[in-house]
Write a structure and sequence with these properties.
Blueprint (H helix, E strand, L loop, with lengths): L1 H30 L8 H24 L9 H25 L2
């Protein structure tokens, strides 16, 4: 049961990382005019990605200094997931298994 919970949490973190990457790509495609955000499908995809990422990115943006219009908050969140959250989950899982 504990292994299943750990696997699900790790998989959800991996999916969220991919959603963050897709959101960054989507925003750049819209900014460069490759995607037309006035089309209903593109707008719905953008709205979905925005609703999935903004609750996590907004607090990080408030902490980071302004760097001339470049948004580093997705990179900070991705690095935080990869180097803080996942190792903490792995060590927590190991301590619960081997106690």
């Amino acid at each position: 049961m504990l292994f299943v919970l750990f696997s699900v949490l790790m998989r959800l973190l991996e999916i969220y990382c991919w959603i963050l990457i897709l959101s960054c790509i989507f925003i750049n495609l819209c900014l460069f005019g490759i995607l037309d955000s006035r089309k209903p499908l593109v707008w719905k995809v953008g709205l979905f990605l925005n609703r999935m990422t903004e609750p996590v990115l907004e607090p990080v943006r408030r902490i980071l200094p302004s760097l001339g219009g470049v948004d580093f908050s997705p990179m900070v969140v991705l690095l935080g997931i990869q180097y803080v959250v996942q190792p903490v989950l792995v060590s927590l899982f190991r301590t619960l298994i081997y106690r």
